[in-house]
Recover the amino acids of this structure.
């Protein structure tokens, strides 16, 4: 017999997010340096991905997490991070996704996932992660 261990749950806005029993879904939108413009290909990819998930709002809470590279200083990168999130949020609004299903965390250049000591690392840090957290009932 297979057992499922639930290590813990996080409650946010009255909604529980499982940490073990279901996997989150994730897509990233990448940006050019200093930009918050989303090209048509990435916008279409995100829209198509969201359309491919049956009963999206019945099953998932959406989180946007934005990052930047360190070029330009802390204040500029915090602003840029926020603008990138708003650009992705606009695509979600066009999909008629209510804002109460969406949470946003703008990291700026803090907490980089990739090392910023190379062009590739900086390019990988210039992004917004769209994360779908499974709802637990």
């Amino acid at each position: 017999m297979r057992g499922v261990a639930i290590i813990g749950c996080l409650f946010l806005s009255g909604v529980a997010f499982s940490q073990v029993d279901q996997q989150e879904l994730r897509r990233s939108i990448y940006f050019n340096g200093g930009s918050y413009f989303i090209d048509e290909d990435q916008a279409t990819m995100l829209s198509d991905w969201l359309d491919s998930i049956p009963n999206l709002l019945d099953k998932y809470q959406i989180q946007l997490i934005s990052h930047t590279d360190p070029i330009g200083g802390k204040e500029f990168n915090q602003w840029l991070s926020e603008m990138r999130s708003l650009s992705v949020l606009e695509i979600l609004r066009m999909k008629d996704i209510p804002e109460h299903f969406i949470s946003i965390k703008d990291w700026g250049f803090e907490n980089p996932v990739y090392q910023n000591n190379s062009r590739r690392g900086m390019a990988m840090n210039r992004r917004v992660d769209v994360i779908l957290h499974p709802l637990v009932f």
